[in-house]
Design brief:
about 35% helix; about 260 residues; alpha/beta; five-stranded mixed sheet
């Protein structure tokens, strides 16, 4: 049996960071190599804490990063220079941040997903299949809900779902996307994908895609009741990506849904 992969968790003191520490510890193919947090932030007792990201990457195999876009871009460049693979769940990335991940992927295996939940990534596959099978006779709508502290809207997961639906229809997303509706908007165009955003409470994440036809309606919903599901998916991705060559990967590939 091969030795567990040595994992570094960046932003380990945050809400997601603590979930990641537990998920890495629980995964049989992973071992926590080091945790990185700001000096004033506390970590769970016994956590191997590194003084800096540079120190943490020494001897590491995979870096897991669920922080902020600017932090992710810098961390990706540093990890790539040290030959450390990347698993990134940071959302709100700009084209510049995505370019940083692509640059890293030329040197090390790099996986980015706006949502690491296994269920969400299975849902993305189902959305593509349903949108293709049902055709343009069914209108497309998407709703998403998250906790009151979430900063970006729509969520990164919702944006990925919208991209999948538009790609299945062969539509440019920026031309057909409708963010909410108000006033005398008139009849709904056939070539449109609507998205509605809800924020409040402690909702971990809920996404529903609606395929609305004449006489029937299909709804595909994913509900997360805990952030733990995102961390568990990240640990599974880290265990998988450690055996891959340099390149840019997705969670669909981790699940075997896409080559």
């Amino acid at each position: 049996m091969s030795a567990p992969l040595r994992i570094v968790v960046l932003g380990a003191a945050g809400r997601m960071g603590r979930e990641l520490l537990q998920a890495v510890a629980a995964h049989p193919a992973c071992a926590l190599h080091a945790a990185v947090a700001r000096p004033h932030q506390e970590l769970p007792p016994g956590t191997p804490r590194a003084a800096s990201l540079e120190a943490a990457l020494e001897g590491a195999d995979v870096l897991i990063d669920f922080t902020r876009p600017e932090t992710t871009a810098a961390a990706a460049a540093l990890a790539a220079s040290r030959g450390v693979a990347l698993v990134v769940g940071t959302t709100g990335l700009t084209l510049e941040h995505h370019a940083a991940l692509r640059a890293a992927s030329a040197q090390v295996p790099t996986l980015w997903a706006p949502n690491m939940s296994l269920g969400v990534n299975a849902m993305l596959w189902l959305l593509q299949a349903a949108a293709t099978a049902l055709g343009e006779g069914f209108d497309l709508e998407l709703t998403e809900a998250h906790h009151r502290h979430k900063a970006d809207a729509p969520s990164g997961t919702a944006l990925r779902m919208l991209e999948v639906l538009a790609e299945a229809r062969g539509w440019p997303l920026d031309e057909v996307l409708c963010h909410g509706r108000q006033g005398q908007v008139g009849a709904r165009p056939a070539r449109q994908i609507g998205v509605q955003v809800v924020r409040g409470g402690d909702v971990a994440g809920e996404h529903t895609a609606l395929f609305l036809g004449d006489g029937e309606r299909l709804e595909i919903t994913h509900r997360a009741s805990s952030r733990a599901v995102f961390a568990q998916g990240a640990a599974r991705a880290a265990a998988w990506i450690g055996a891959q060559p340099p390149g840019l990967y997705t969670m669909e590939q981790v699940l075997g849904l896409k080559k």
